[in-house]
Amino acid sequence: MAGQFGGTPIYILREGSQRTAGRDAQRSNIMAAKAVAGAVRTTLGPKGMDKMLVDTMGDVVITNDGVTILKEMDIEHPAAKMMVEIAKTQDQEVGDGTTSAVVLAGELLKQAEGLLEQEIHPTIIAAGYRAAADKSMEILKGLTVSVLAKDEDLLMKIAFTAMAGKGSQSARDELAVMAVEAVRSVVDEDGTVDTDNITVEKKVGGGITDSLLVSGVVIDKDRLHPSMPKSVTDAKIALLNVAMEIEKTEVDAKIQITSPDQLQAFLDQEEKMLKGMVDKIVASGANVLFVQKGIDDLAQHFLAKAGIYTLRRVKKSDMEKLARATGGKVITSIHEISKDDLGKAGLVEERKVSDDKMTFVQQCDNPKSVSIILRGGTVHVVDELDRAMEDALRVVGVAFEDKMLVAGGGAPEVELALRLRAYASTVSGREQLAIEAFADAMEVIPKTLAENAGLDQIDTLVALRSAHEKGMKGAGLDMDTGKPVEMLKLGVVEPLRVKTQAIKSATEVAVMILRIDDVIASKSGPGAMGGMPGGMGGMGGEDFE
Ligand code: ADP
Ligand code: MG
Questions:
Q1: Does the record carry Chaperone as a key word (predicted)?
Q2: Residue 249, pLDDT score
Q3: Which of 204, 210, 469, 506 is deepest in the core (most CB within 10 A)?
Q4: pTM for this prediction
């Protein structure tokens, strides 16, 4: 990039930087964003397909979940990354509707391309899209049905709809009941729901129907030593996030031992230190100990002798749940432990679940903590079930909080398209075209649902449109027949927030991408223009630390 100054070119960018401007930049960004939407669109809906993701280590994830797919993909293009961000935002805000949000954003950009071809300025498109999104919020509010905490059946249907297509079919009733009950037990007095109070443990073995809901926290570990008590009532729980080991020196220190006495003294010293640690725990009054790190064999022996029920290498996320459930404090130094730091539970017990033993922490100080143990034949089944349950818990939680739902199955999108077109005709100037484009984009949801179910997109859309024109506001796609059906009757319902959030974030990202007309990328580092390298990597590891 060079300007001219008295005949001498002036370079303002480092050599090797890349710059794309104007239509080229827009084209490349839109293409990348559409590619991301294209990558997840086949997974949309109850009949959506799954994706198998393989990382560089050969680990496999099989999923239908939009945000999971996008998180696992190693996406490099900056505009494509913005698309991934909307899936993440959607996930954080409502926990469901991630694929819809991304597909919608992709379609908004595709429609915008047509407008750009007609020389409509991005600023006009952005204004039209924003106006259409605002109008959509208003229209959606008019389509809501209220749901109360006592509407068990309706709440269950919300859970069904969220879990549809995620490997839960064979036990959808049981799982939906579990989701609703779990959320019900963690609702606060002020009506807010924090699903972090719900622990979901996965256990391979048995069938999906063997999954169960229990009060308290369940940890997928058995007690450290067989001579520790199997069950502790009136538990006083110490939570520790440091190792109960003698610290190894960083440098390779050599200790010269010249006589057997010295060796003995050395070992005695180690033993004394470990014993000292255990004594601290005992002195605090704890009879249960959960440690996030390792525990030396000798310390295990002393703990067993003291009759303390102990677990080691407990996941960090479980430690946090335990702290919350038992009212205990996670201690970072054994020497500081005191009675006040201990958590309380009526019962800590090791129980057998299929062939494995797990630790149940029940009758907790905080009655709001519950756990769901998910069962299934293989790791992949349980993992996908976990994602389905995660979505269900979140949407049921959102329903408890907002008390408002809308029909699913493409119904609100078709209604929106219809009403937005009517609204567009009231708007003058070129913005009108953008609002119409926005309306057309909404229909990508029913179209994709149909496509993924092997139905004809055009036929189904035409039928849906005419049902809505006749006033069937809740008409959505019956996946089995391809006919428009009242979704509320069919039990396909979603929290309003899933829809509003998806539209808000899809609009935001589409507008943001449209408004970029210059991409300047430095020589090294990410952001190089062009394709979307599709290698996998960066799989989320276990969270021990
Ligand atoms: P997302 O990540 O966007 O939640 P999903 O794959 O979960 O993607 O699909 C959600 C879409 O599927 C929503 O539009 C929802 O209304 C629709 N849907 C779910 N269950 C059914 C059903 N039984 N019949 C018709 N549509 C359904
Ligand atoms: Mg979903």
A1: yes
A2: 58
A3: 506
A4: 0.83
